[in-house]
Design brief:
Blueprint: E1 10-14, H1 18-27, E2 33-38, E3 60-61, H2 63-72, H3 76-82, E4 86-90, E5 94-97, E6 112-116, H4 119-131, E7 136-140, E8 142-149, E9 154-161, E10 167-171, E11 174-177, H5 185-191, E12 199-202, E13 207-214, E14 226-229, E15 239-246, E16 250-257, H6 267-276, H7 282-287, E17 291-292, E18 297-299, E19 304-307, E20 319-321, E21 327-328, H8 336-354, H9 361-384, H10 397-413, H11 417-427, H12 439-446, H13 461-466
Parallel strand pairs: 1-2, 1-11, 2-7, 5-14, 11-20
Antiparallel strand pairs: 3-6, 4-6, 8-9, 9-10, 12-19, 13-16, 13-17, 13-18, 14-15, 15-16, 19-21
């Protein structure tokens, strides 16, 4: 951890979710005081909250995110697994059907892992770890109303204390907006006199329906694999689903569908959709012996939306944007949490390179976080742009070529463990997409040995028996 400078420095983070807490953990090593301002009243433990409705749906933390999270909060992976989260091997503990139709083989020698648990548990463990640190203060139940300062420098934020409460100004040397998809940063910056920021939206029209089940007896020990049937963007409507074993012997089941094939909140229709609406009925069959513990909950807030802050012609000192406030992704790809953790690391490195309050520091942060954002964005948009009505313009020539090549990499990865490793390096956000064009990947995609396609989901006999599929 770098030394704190002698001159007293303060930082402020807008948003107390994962991205905000991880940003605060980074800033606490570089500023004397860090204040996290959150509109919700944050719960003491793993409980839902109003301002994070997407927490009710399945979340996955890929290995790129696991590594970043552990670097930011050493020991947090152990804390999560102690409380029931799973650290699973990819592909050993993942049964997955690719968008193009192949079932991936469960090669046991993959070097990638994934954290699986409820979002409530993940947030609670991260929140407790961060807020226990010196120099970090939580100001929850407080809504940020705008930025203080001018177009050259942000000096703090204006806040409203509670419903109908008084408005005050909190001053800080650096303000980080990590308020998520609902970020008001574009409006706030225009209010300071800055030009509108370039934005792109690719909306596949995906709706999600999620429900928690008690796992069928016999599937808890050992932990059941994640079962994922992915949607095909070239065969609309794209419908998919995933079963994620979470803490307390429960299954979190999320179903998804695009325009013309969306799941609903109707409890009687949920399992029928899983059984008949997907490219394979395995999820519906798994639910036949599972007991529902909740009614389905739905969301349509799934558009890919990116704000290109790093391209702004001018940028104020003392202000930067992180996490979903920069780019939100279709949740089906499971990249949002990983990008948040990697962006927090980029924040720390950018501040260390030239000093946390040096001229141009905020702009350097914005450009640094654009790299992990761009890696995830290219993967998501390369798929979702193919859905009818997803974007005003069709996929670009580059996006079409990249998607076609990724399809070939997926086909090779389903039958060749060496090709799969390279594919997972990219999908897990451990390496940039350029990894797919490395010489070894080009060889394995074009000439590598292949095993024949699997006829169905690669569940073991004991897994089938435990779930009643025999």
């Amino acid at each position: 951890m770098p030394d704190i400078p002698t001159a007293r420095r303060t930082a402020l983070v807008i948003g107390g979710s994962t991205a905000g807490m991880l940003a605060a953990s980074v800033l606490a090593g570089r500023f004397h005081e860090v204040t996290v301002v959150e509109a919700d009243r944050l719960p003491a433990g793993p409980e839902p909250r109003k301002g994070l409705p997407q927490a009710r749906h399945a979340h996955l933390l890929w290995s790129g995110g696991v590594a970043a999270l552990e670097e930011l909060l050493p020991g947090v992976t152990g804390e999560l697994t102690d409380r029931g989260a799973g650290l699973i091997g990819v592909m050993a503990d993942l049964v997955s059907k690719a968008p193009s139709g192949q079932w991936f083989r469960r090669f046991a020698d993959s070097r990638h892992h994934m954290i699986v648990c409820s979002r409530d548990l993940l947030d609670a463990v991260i929140r407790a770890d961060v807020l226990a640190r010196r120099r970090i203060t939580l100001l929850d139940g407080t809504r940020v109303a705008g930025l203080a300062g001018d177009r050259r420098r942000v000096t703090g934020v204006h806040v409203d204390h509670g419903a109908g409460g008084r408005r005050t100004t909190l001053h800080a040397d650096l303000v980080i907006d990590a308020s998520g998809r609902g970020s008001q940063a574009p409006r706030w910056l225009q209010e300071l006199g800055l030009a509108p920021v370039e934005e792109r939206v690719v909306d596949a029209g995906v709706a999600y329906a999620s429900r928690i089940y008690a796992a069928p007896g016999g599937t808890a020990a050992p932990r059941y694999p994640v079962v994922n049937v992915q949607a095909d963007p070239r065969d609309a409507p794209g419908r998919g689903g995933v079963v994620v074993p979470i803490e307390d012997d429960r299954w979190l089941v999320t179903l998804s569908g695009t325009r013309g094939g969306r799941p609903t909140a109707d409890p009687d229709a949920f399992e029928h959709f899983a059984l008949t609406g997907l490219k394979d009925p395995v999820i519906g069959r798994l639910l036949a012996r599972a007991k529902p513990l909740t009614d389905p909950v739905t969301t349509r807030s799934t558009a890919n939306r990116r704000r290109y802050y790093e391209k702004a012609a001018s940028w104020p000192e003392g202000f930067a944007v992180l996490g979903d406030a920069v780019a939100g992704y279709n949740p089906v790809y499971g990249h949002g949490l990983t990008v948040a953790a990697q962006s927090a690391l980029a924040l720390g490195r950018a501040l260390d390179r030239h000093g946390p309050t040096a001229p141009g520091a905020a702009r350097r942060v914005q450009r640094a976080v654009a790299r992990p954002v761009g890696n995830a964005w290219n993967l998501a948009v390369g798929q979702d742009a193919y859905y009818p009505g997803a974007a005003p313009q069709p996929p670009t020539a580059v996006e079409r070529l990249l998607t076609a090549y990724v399809d070939k990499a997926v086909a090779a990865g389903s039958a060749n463990p060496h090709a799969l490793r390279g594919l997972l390096d990219v999908m897990s956000l451990k390496t940039p997409p350029a990894r797919l064009f490395a010489p070894d990947m080009l060889w394995h995609i074009a000439f590598g040995p292949r095993k024949p396609p699997l006829p169905g989901p690669p569940l073991t006999p004991s897994e089938r028996q435990a779930a009643g599929l025999t």
